Structures are given as C-alpha cells and as structure tokens.
Amino acid sequence: MKLEEVFESYKDYIMPTYTKVPLVFVKGKGSRLWDIHGNVYLDFFPGWGVGNLGHCHPKVSAAVRDQISKLIFIPNNYYHIPQAKLAKEVAYRTFAAKVFFCNSGAEANEGAIKFSRKFGKGRFEIITFENSFHGRTLAALAATGQKKYQQGFEPLPEGFRIVKFNDIEAVKGALSDKTVAIMLELIQGEGGINVAGKDFVLALRKLCDEKNLLLIVDEVQTGLGRTGKYFCYQHYGITPDIVTLAKALGGGLPVGMMAVKKEIADTLQPGMHASTFGGGPVICRAALATLEAIQKEKLLANASKQSEHLFQRLNSLKNKYPAIKEVRGIGLMAGVELNREGKPIVEGCLKKGLLINCTHDTVLRLMPALNISKKEIDRAINILDGVFSIAGSS
Ligand SMILES: *Cc1c(COP(=O)(O)O)cnc(C)c1O
Hints:
Layout lengths: L2 H11 L11 E5 L2 E4 L4 E4 L14 H11 L12 H13 L4 E5 L2 H16 L4 E5 L8 H6 L3 H4 L9 E4 L4 H7 L4 E6 L2 E2 L5 E2 L2 H14 L2 E5 L23 E4 L10 E5 L20 H16 L2 H22 L3 E7 L2 E6 L4 H9 L2 E2 L1 E3 L3 E4 L7 H18 L3
Parallel strand pairs: 3-15, 5-6, 5-7, 7-10, 10-11
Antiparallel strand pairs: 1-2, 2-3, 4-12, 8-9, 11-12, 13-14, 14-17, 16-17
Helix pairs in contact: 2-9, 3-9, 10-12, 11-12
The structure holds pyridoxal-5'-phosphate.
Pyridoxal-5'-phosphate binds next to α4.
C-alpha cells in the first residue's frame, strides 16, 4: 500500500476517534522506529507507555512465535500453563495473592470497580481524583476526573465521588456510609504527570484501614518498571488492596490484569466476572518474556540510573528556557510543564526525528523504554534543546 492509500483507507473506513500524526510506521526495534519512507525516529514515548522494553524485544517476539505455533487460544474454563506461570510471577513481584486477567487498562479498572461493589455488600461509592484517567468504558470513565472525556456520554454510572488530588481533607469530606474504595494513580499520566505526595498516600492507606475501604492503585501506566521499581506504590512504602495493570505488561500485546490481596482474594466466585480472551496463552507468554527481560537485563537498575541523567538534563533545559515551568516525575516517567501549549514543541521534535507526547495541553511527556541508553537520552535532549532554542526562549 502506498502512503496516500493508507491515509485514504483510514479516512474512509476508520472512525476518526484519534487526532493523528501523518506518519506510517513499518518497523520498530528498541527505541527506534522506521516510517514507510525509511526515515528513523527516536521513540521517547513508545506505545503510549506500552513499550517499557522498546519495540519488538527479541525475547517477546521469540516467545510469541513459539506459542503461536503451539496453542493460540483456549477458553478460561480450561487450564493452560502460560497463565499459571504468569499469575505466579506477578504475585511474586507484588503483594498480590490472586489475579484476574483481561485485555486492557479500562477493563482492569472496570474489574476493580465491580470487585469493590461485591466486596462492599451494599457499599458502592468509590472516591477518585481530579485529573485522573482510568479508561474509556462507562464505569472507568465515570471514575475519571476529567470532564472533557465524559461530555456527551451521560448518564454515567453512579457511585463516584471525584475530589481534589493530594488533598486528604477533601477525601475525608467525601466519605459516606456507602464508601467502599479509593482509587488513584500515584502519578497521574494523562492528567499531566502529577505525582502523589508521600504523606497523602500514607494518609489514604491509614484511612482505608480505619474505614475498611479498598485502596485501588491504578498502575496501568506506572507499572512494570516505569518508575525504576516494578510498581510505583513501592516508592511509597504502602501496600494497596488492589492494583491494576495493563500497558507494559504484554511487551506490546494487549493484556490487562487486576491483582488483589490475600484477605479478599475469593470475593469473586465462578460466574461473577469474565473475559473471553483474558489471559490467553500468547499474551501470557509475551508477558512472561517481558518480566524475564526486565529481570535478566536489570532494567529496573537501568531505569533508575538513566532517570538521574534524564532529569539532570531536563532540569538544565529548565534553567535555560523560561518556557519551562517545572520538570517532574519518577524514574523514566517525566513531565515537563510549559507556560504555553506543548503542541508546537512536539511537532518541532517530530521534524527532527524525536517522538514525544504532550498531555493536558501544556505538559510534555517523556517515557522512554527502560533499556534506553545515556547516548539516546543525550540525543533526545539535544533535539529538545534545538527546538526550544527556536520555539521556547521567551
Ligand atoms: C491508559 C490508561 C488506562 C486505560 O487503559 P486502556 O488499555 O487504554 O483501556 C487506565 N488507567 C491509566 C492510568 C492509563 O494510563
């Protein structure tokens, strides 16, 4: 297919739900992507946070190739080995006793919401936060504290109280005898890389313990090494009751997961919840390969090490350009808040072969693969520097 034919086919046959960048990619390897013309791009936002291993990690590709020739699908009323192995590997890395497999972040959060309602036995209200993002299904959308995603889809399911982030008094003010859970991202990804304060998170944990509420941590974007630890909650010294995962878990393949602690692990019984494709053999092999790569290639250590370099270089840009208001984040999840729209900067980088993202209009988001090198970070920052020197010096 020629470039124009690709664009035409999308225009004629695909719903225009995405604002699109006019690039057609054909190949990826690590932090590099090739477009249809053979141009190479340095990808500092691989797969919207999916690509913790970068593109086409050889371990993931090999595992998928092997599994796909043996058994592609088996329904969840039978057993298969990859799912058994994966659940154990995840449980071993988290606090979790039991997991539920699904196919996306929204579905994982939807599962956590349904789980909470069964657990609540009549209590159903969940407290969530302004600027949060939990997905696009109706309940996940109702939990999402951003009006722009909700408009026109009302009525949304009831039972969500959305309060100010990092404000424990606001949480306490929203409690009722129907409250069953508090759900949050420890770093709000789509909301602008807003980091939860440590005191706030400790206070939430305490409140949940006192009131018998479930603390649900949405690690769909922060999980699997993104912050230099397997899970972002490990930076806070707390244990959630439920954690949801998706994006990076499958090494590029669609997988979601809800993991819960031991005491509540048998809340859902046969027939209460399901997902036909959840935890299929191929994605489980991909996820096992992903976890193995993170461990064997010491990617948590690399993420922490490169994080220091990334933040040091971003902060030096901040000192140089008044357009940069703040640099924030943990590990390799970095936000650069500007005093202006970020779109021209993203477009300027794109022209120079660097892919980054802008969220919440004014926050540049950089989330390179965990196996990124110092050299690649330097290249990306030099490109950003060049773009800011033209577009951001006032
Ligand atoms: C992306 C994201 C979701 C939704 O995941 P999908 O796989 O797109 O449904 C939910 N929560 C957070 C924090 C996310 O970043």
